[in-house]
Amino acid sequence: MSLSIRNQIAGTVTAITAGEAMATVKVRLDGGQDITAAITVDAVKELGLAAGSAVRALVKATEVALATGAVEGLSIRNQIPGTVVDVATGPAMASVKVDVNGGGLTAAITADAVDALGLAAGSSVVALIKSTEVSLQAA
User: Fold this and answer.
1) What is the rounded CA–CA span in Å between residue 96 and residue 55?
2) β-strands 124-129, 34-40: how paired?
3) E strand residue ranges, the chain
4) β-pairing, 54-59 with 93-99?
5) How, if at all, do strands 65-67 and 124-129 pair?
């Protein structure tokens, strides 16, 4: 299946915590980082997810925020360190490609944010992704 979602990172389910309607699914990405997805319990069942299941974590580029370092006092659980490999800036928006050890992420952020953060190839960043913005695909 082809998707327009640029961020598709392979990993393995390590834990599932199910509630009434929603579940949190912890995934160890192939690069060793951990990411959490908040998806419906129905989706967990339909995808046949269990600890050890191979999955792809899917995140739209518009849902990836960037910081120049780890952020404390924030509800966003997914903080993945990486290095900027490319910045394509237009008049209003920019596409920032980040190497995250074993995969790549693309963040769509404003051109003003690129300037304010001083982002360029080689910059160290932390990708911030809310768990509710991570979708999973069974591999």
Assistant:
1) 24
2) unpaired
3) 7-18, 22-29, 34-40, 54-59, 65-67, 78-89, 93-99, 104-110, 124-129, 135-138
4) unpaired
5) antiparallel
* Residue 126 · residue 80 · CB < 8 Å: yes
Q: Is the dihedral of CA 71, 76, 79, 85 positive or negative?
A: negative
Give the global pTM: 0.93
Angle at 32 between CA 133 and CA 13, to 5 degrees: 55
Tens place of pLDDT per residue across the chain (139 aa): 688 898 999 999 999 999 999 999 999 999 999 999 999 999 999 999 999 999 999 999 999 999 999 999 999 989 999 999 999 999 999 999 999 986 899 999 999 999 999 999 999 999 999 999 999 999 8
CA distance 58 to 43: 14
